[in-house]
Amino acid sequence: MSFTSLLKRPSSTFTYLGRSLATKSISGSSTTSRAFNRFTVVDFYADWCGPCKMLSPALTKLTAEPNRSTNGQAYDLLKVDIDTDEGQTLARQYDVAAVPTVIAFRDNVVISQFRGALPEPSVKQWLDSLGKA
């Protein structure tokens, strides 16, 4: 199952922030469409995961507007709860063996990822590296 196929399901709670698509967050908050040519940062998490709770605020802060990569591209943050059916499907598809796992996509292609809760400066460094990928 791909991000695109999940988006085509009208009752889906899955979201993918990308090429002029209406989006909904799998965690429940709604977001509007974003422009093409942005980085999509996917955070695979679980509500019961302590390290996920530590990482989430840093990811949210560093991917929020007006933050941009070193090459000027904006970020879209997508949170995928692995305790949902769709989240488990995506976790298997992208070989997510532990949470938190964060994967960056550009134009639907994986360009980088990390596992575990990193401190905010390390998350910023990782996000900055996306502009060079």
TrEMBL record:
It comes from Crepidotus variabilis. GO terms for cellular component: cytoplasm. This is Thioredoxin-like protein. Keywords: Disulfide bond, Electron transport, Transport. SUPFAM superfamilies: Thioredoxin-like (SSF52833). PROSITE patterns: THIOREDOXIN_1, THIOREDOXIN_2. GO terms for molecular function: protein-disulfide reductase activity. The lineage of its organism: Eukaryota, Fungi, Dikarya, Basidiomycota, Agaricomycotina. Pfam families: Thioredoxin (PF00085). Residues 5-132 form the Thioredoxin domain. CDD domains: TRX_family.
